[in-house]
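stage 2 :: seqdesign
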């Protein structure tokens, strides 16, 4: 049986950012961060999209079945995580709009 890898929360967030921005392919992300399975990237991205970011900070074998994670997480840490989430969302939204604008310019019908 293989050894389970533990990835820091910062790495998970960077992987999600790179995946959602389209800067790197899954294979490139896997090579860059030493991730052995593409499913791991998909899982982290799914958690992010579903608003389950608290799961990114959970250690292996410590998955919280109820609520949003440990109650001992300070209010300041929770607010920091929310700020990071909104900053990442705004950054990705801007990139999406830029890509959409370029696509529209390229493929729009010229009258």
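stage 2 :: out
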């Amino acid at each position: 049986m293989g050894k389970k890898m533990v990835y820091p929360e910062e790495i998970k967030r960077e992987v999600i950012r790179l995946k959602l921005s389209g800067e790197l392919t899954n294979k490139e992300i896997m090579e860059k961060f030493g991730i052995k399975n593409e499913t791991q990237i998909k899982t982290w991205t799914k958690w992010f999209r579903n608003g389950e970011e608290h799961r990114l900070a959970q250690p292996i074998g410590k998955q919280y079945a109820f609520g949003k994670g440990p109650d001992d997480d300070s209010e300041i840490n929770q607010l920091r995580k929310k700020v990071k989430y909104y900053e990442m969302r705004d950054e990705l939204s801007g990139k999406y709009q830029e890509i959409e604008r370029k696509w529209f310019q390229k493929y729009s019908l010229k009258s």
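stage 3 :: structure notes
- The chain has a mean pLDDT of 82.
- The chain is about 60% helix and 0% strand.
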